[in-house]
């Protein structure tokens, strides 16, 4: 794929002649939250607008400081759950609760208040995980793809005009859809997965079905991924879980929901999001083509596809970033 050919040159010309601003939807509407917003307010904005992340406006500088997404909220959630569970198991706390006639529900509500009062300005990971890295609308598409490639791996990129005004927010999914519509211009659309993916080139992270849901969300944050395959004791893929699943919980049920076993949590998500509980995770094999993988990702509106062998044993994961990196050009 590194050899210069007329076909490769044509794809490169396409990436250079297409403007980044061409990917902004005509009906784009800027939605953001102030840095003083508390976490439950952020979750409500994400759920109401059916979005995965939202820009954060620093109220002191009147500038955007980054984007916040569901996975960015999990460290606080995990830390509070660890505190609640560990403290509840301590005999000293039980004695204190009994002596002061404080019931367990009151204790939980006290810890929940910490969650309710936490503002996103207090979270130090906003700019680190999701920096505000705008691209001028006149820059070529190739520049935008660089922001989504493995070297940078942003999930969303703001598009600005010549005056610095935000005119769009482009996601990896939007880029993939646009490139798929023009896939006939790409010379290697029919290459198979095994030609651009190799086992072991990156850590394969999964979560056993026997674990609680909170374990999966903590792993997502630790490994900087937004979703994980769920496997059984034989490493067969039996489901998937993503940060967006957190939007299925209310402020009152969030803590109890994520403490559920994964099997129960996923069943609850299926009911909330009206998914077919009998549906299987979307997978591919090393013999699938690049074009075919793109079609599956777009059709099912997913951000990753799991690579399995003929026995449904998990072998790897292809993210949108992986696919976009291949399409960045020779």
UniProtKB/TrEMBL annotation:
Residues 23-83, 123-185, 200-258, 277-330 form the CBS domain. Pfam families: CBS. It comes from the Eukaryota. Keywords: CBS domain, Repeat. PANTHER family: AMP-ACTIVATED PROTEIN KINASE, GAMMA REGULATORY SUBUNIT. This is CBS domain containing protein. It comes from Acanthamoeba castellanii (strain ATCC 30010 / Neff).
